[in-house]
Amino acid sequence: MSVPATVVTPPLVDELDIVIPTIRNLDFLEQWRPFFQPYHLIIVQDGDPSKTIRVPEGFDYELYNRNDINRILGPKSSCISFKDSACRCFGFLVSKKKYIFTIDDDCFVAKDPSGQEINALAQHIHNLLTPATPFFFNTLYDPYREGADFVRGYPFSLREGVTTAISHGLWLNIPDYDAPTQLVKPRERNTRYVDAVMTIPKGTLFPMCGMNLGFHRELIGPAMYFGLMGDGQPIGRYDDMWAGWCAKVICDHLGLGVKTGLPYIWHSKASNPFVNLKKEYKGIYWQEDIIPFFQNVTLPKECTTPQKCYIELSKLVKEKLGPIDPYFEKLSDAMVTWIDAWNELNPSTNGATTLKVELSKPK
Amino acid sequence: MSPPSLLSLAIDATLLNLHNISDLSFLPEHVLSDLFLRTLKAGKLTERILKIFIATEKEEVISMIQALNIQLVMTPVLPTSKLMSQVSIDKNEVDIVIAAFHSDLTSFLEEWRPIFSGFHLIVVQDPDLKEELKIPKGFDIDVYTKLDIDKLISSSNASMFSGYACRYFGYLVSKRKYIISIDDDCSPAKDNNGDVADIVIQHITNLKTPATPIFFNTLYDPYRKGSDFVRGYPFSLRSGVPCVLSCGLWLNLADYDAPTQSLKPELRNSRYVDAVLTVPKYSMMPMSGINIAFDRETVGPAIFPALKLAKEGKVRWETMEDIWCGLVVKVVCDHLQLGVKTGIPYVWRNERGSAIDSLKKEWEGVKLMEEVVPFFQTLKLSQDAVTAEACVTEMVVAIKKEKGRSHPELANAADNMVEWVKIWKEVQSRVLV
């Protein structure tokens, strides 16, 4: 990325919130200070609410613990997971900004091959502010990047692209593997810096990792519900996966784009694979049914907003996935509760009627 | 109950102290056998102890070991691993096909010698090129000229192989499993470490490792060394599907169309993206013929010079036959559960031709894409089409029906596809000299 000659105001400084779930501490913020300090932080404290989480000096933040979540949402707080990073979506709910960037507390600043520190937030913003191209694959990846363009054969009518709703970043060092893979390859580290951002084509699902993620809250926020995970639930470590599948289906339906690739962060903490296996166990089996479900979902034309899409999806989840396990019926109800909470906390700005999104197909 | 005998107690004591014992050969056979059985019962038969028993060479114990089929574990128990990153390349499986537009191939072949050496090359001379080709020594090369084309192909079809399309003749006459083909304005590129990118090894590796079109892997090719499937990737999809087409990329002069290159004459691709990934199912893409490799046996019938633009020329900006071909191949692959990869290897593409001159010609190719892409995106083939030929045959019917009347060049393309499949079948069944 090119660097400006003079200092400029950080982009979107009044339009973006950084949401961080944490149960330990926020020491990692020190390293991010030059990139994050101008922005507002929303800290979601998981676990024991009586514990005090210290936020480093100089950051502008709001912090919510479990007591706050219960107080603000009342009975609806049942949809927010406990003892799982899924609780981060509470931060999406209460934010009043147009964009969200969310990052885990074990993610640090990575360096690109030239040794320069990567401003992950700036890259996400760039991804979100440039169009995506889901209708036809560009072999030179992101055509809007400096030094690249659409290749020969790319239809001109598709070169305008669509609005990018999600920017999915990657990780150097500890890769985001599932428990079985971690057990087989405990020493594998991701050292390959792939210098590309690309759009995930329409109709293609992907595993969305919540560690390093940016999105357009107004366009897709209601679909970024991270499900019922962790304490009291039969499954864990599938929160971001669930949100990703729902969000991609809805993005495809609403004609929005999802990008993946840069920026990289440095993921430092390898979680315990045996603990992970226990959490993921059911998910590993269930995903065999869940994926075909999402691949075959079609949403009716009348669903013109993310909320409407999500409610429709929740009905389909209950109908089609309910038979697999009662968990999905609970999840379906939680999805509805989430939308209720979303609409309650975001009355007019994300109102179902004011949002005009095109259900565009390629001409 | 009678108390245990002194012998029995002694054997028990031995069992307790087995870890200190390194030799049992002094024991009488009946005592040894009893000890062996008690060792088994106590679950104390380790590899070391088994070796000590075997070393006594006492018959009864040895026959007990054999009867129970007790074996030393020779190989370590490893978790099931995927394909190793080192894919073996059999030179007899590969043909490298080059189309020659210029008679002097010396500098081109010399540049590629370190990479092409030892492989069989097929050079097809552009029928319009009158001069004889100059080829340096030391290559295993077969050259095909207009004469060869005319011998094999009827005169009505020979025009299919003019210009850039002459390379397809090479695909036709090849007898090998894999084809690698690059334009003659390409040189070897260097990767980010400064090493020369070996397009042969990379293309064949791409073709010999599975593709993953059904679900996107965010760490790109999971079969690459240092990579894997990420969390959330369904296990049932991790064996992938066979990859039959590998599309490489270009540094320096990328494969842009004439309008783009004219608008941005300084635009050069300097970004080496160190990734290869599968193009997802149902996603269409522009296949550039500049740097490709494919499984000839499986998709050969679907890779053909069908779409000829009226003002087609000798510069890449003035062709579309590869783009058309790529759309056809992708539909075929999606239907037959085969994979297409894109990304590395890179070639370095040299300057040639003027984009602005190409612009002056009527730009029908660009207009055609608007029609053609939506058509392919919604094309569905029947269950009965289980080979590439069958798929192409069904496609021809659909093209003629939906686009034939409004677009004569597409109707022609469909006719060419029919001819190609016929010629392909004929050539494959013959024994060629």
From TrEMBL, chain A:
<dbReference type="GO" id="GO:0033356">
    <property type="term" value="P:UDP-L-arabinose metabolic process"/>
</dbReference>
<comment type="similarity">
    <text>Belongs to the RGP family.</text>
</comment>
<dbReference type="InterPro" id="IPR004901">
    <property type="entry name" value="RGP"/>
</dbReference>
<keyword id="KW-0325">Glycoprotein</keyword>
<keyword id="KW-0413">Isomerase</keyword>
<dbReference type="GO" id="GO:0005829">
    <property type="term" value="C:cytosol"/>
</dbReference>
<dbReference type="GO" id="GO:0005794">
    <property type="term" value="C:Golgi apparatus"/>
</dbReference>
<dbReference type="GO" id="GO:0071555">
    <property type="term" value="P:cell wall organization"/>
</dbReference>
<feature type="site" description="Required for activity">
    <location>
        <position position="152"/>
    </location>
</feature>
<protein>
    <recommendedName>
        <fullName>UDP-arabinopyranose mutase</fullName>
        <ecNumber>5.4.99.30</ecNumber>
    </recommendedName>
</protein>
<keyword id="KW-0961">Cell wall biogenesis/degradation</keyword>
<feature type="site" description="Required for activity">
    <location>
        <position position="159"/>
    </location>
</feature>
<dbReference type="GO" id="GO:0052691">
    <property type="term" value="F:UDP-arabinopyranose mutase activity"/>
</dbReference>
<dbReference type="GO" id="GO:0009505">
    <property type="term" value="C:plant-type cell wall"/>
</dbReference>
<dbReference type="Pfam" id="PF03214">
    <property type="entry name" value="RGP"/>
</dbReference>
<dbReference type="GO" id="GO:0071669">
    <property type="term" value="P:plant-type cell wall organization or biogenesis"/>
</dbReference>
<dbReference type="InterPro" id="IPR029044">
    <property type="entry name" value="Nucleotide-diphossugar_trans"/>
</dbReference>
<feature type="glycosylation site" description="N-linked (Glc...) arginine">
    <location>
        <position position="152"/>
    </location>
</feature>
<dbReference type="InterPro" id="IPR037595">
    <property type="entry name" value="RGP_fam"/>
</dbReference>
<comment type="function">
    <text>Probable UDP-L-arabinose mutase involved in the biosynthesis of cell wall non-cellulosic polysaccharides.</text>
</comment>
<keyword id="KW-0333">Golgi apparatus</keyword>
From TrEMBL, chain B:
<dbReference type="GO" id="GO:0071555">
    <property type="term" value="P:cell wall organization"/>
</dbReference>
<dbReference type="GO" id="GO:0005829">
    <property type="term" value="C:cytosol"/>
</dbReference>
<dbReference type="GO" id="GO:0052691">
    <property type="term" value="F:UDP-arabinopyranose mutase activity"/>
</dbReference>
<dbReference type="GO" id="GO:0005794">
    <property type="term" value="C:Golgi apparatus"/>
</dbReference>
<dbReference type="GO" id="GO:0009506">
    <property type="term" value="C:plasmodesma"/>
</dbReference>
<protein>
    <recommendedName>
        <fullName>UDP-arabinopyranose mutase 5</fullName>
    </recommendedName>
</protein>
<keyword id="KW-0961">Cell wall biogenesis/degradation</keyword>
<dbReference type="InterPro" id="IPR037595">
    <property type="entry name" value="RGP_fam"/>
</dbReference>
<dbReference type="Pfam" id="PF03214">
    <property type="entry name" value="RGP"/>
</dbReference>
<comment type="similarity">
    <text>Belongs to the RGP family.</text>
</comment>
<dbReference type="GO" id="GO:0033356">
    <property type="term" value="P:UDP-L-arabinose metabolic process"/>
</dbReference>
<keyword id="KW-0333">Golgi apparatus</keyword>
